[in-house]
Amino acid sequence: MEKTKRVRARTLRSSMTKAEACLWKYALKSSQRGYKFRRQCCLNSYIVDFYPPQLNFIIEVDGASHEVEEVGRYDRVRQQNLEENGYYVLRFRDEEIFEELESVIQSIDYKIASLEEMY
């Protein structure tokens, strides 16, 4: 793993966005979903927002910058790469986390349950 990626991941962990911090606090911290989620984790050649090592499952939180065409294109390629390597990716916009947190949590719980059935 590139040292610069690890340093960048550490920096991102200490400066989460408000939406990431909200999702972490109310849904993912302290194994609330039955799994320990890692924040800003290096996975393959990417840094992913949230990842429980026991499942091939990634949660990404997309802020306004992800609406920029170039960033959106990178996100699609990145997600395709991760999915081709066997990971399942759930994406949520900041607004969804702030305005529909219960629905976001239900989506996460549903995905975890479906993955548990597969394993």
Describe the protein's architecture and organization.
53% of the residues lie in helices and 20% in strands. The mean pLDDT is 90. It is built from 5 helices and 4 strands, in the order H-H-E-E-E-H-E-H-H. The protein has helices at residues 3-14, 18-28, 69-84, 94-99, 101-118; strands at residues 38-43, 46-51, 57-62, 88-93. The protein has a two-stranded antiparallel ribbon with strand order 1-2. The chain is of the alpha+beta class and 119 residues long. Strand 1 (38-43) and strand 2 form a beta hairpin. It has a single domain, classed as 3-Layer(aba) Sandwich (Endonuclease, Chain A), CATH 3.40.960.10.
Provide tags for this entry.
119 residues, alpha+beta, Endonuclease, Chain A, globular
The pLDDT mean sits at 90
What's the architecture in CATH terms? Answer: 3-Layer(aba) Sandwich
Helix- and strand-based class? Answer: alpha+beta
Per DSSP E runs of 2 or more residues, the count of β-strands stands at 4
Order of helices and strands: HHEEEHEHH
What is the count of DSSP helices, taking H or I runs of 4+ residues?
5
Given the C-alpha coordinates, what overall shape results?
globular
CATH-defined superfamily: VSR Endonuclease
Q: What is the terminal-to-terminal distance?
A: 27 Å
What summary fits the major beta sheet?
2 strands, antiparallel
Strand line-up in the sheet with most strands: 1-2
CATH class: Alpha Beta
Domain unit count: 1
- Kindly estimate the percentage of residues that lie in beta strands according to DSSP: 15-25%
Query: What percentage of residues falls in helices of 4 or more residues?
Result: 40-55%
C-alpha Rg, in Å?
Answer: 14 Å
Q: What is the fold-level CATH name, i.e. the topology?
A: Endonuclease, Chain A
Q: Give the low-confidence spans.
A: none
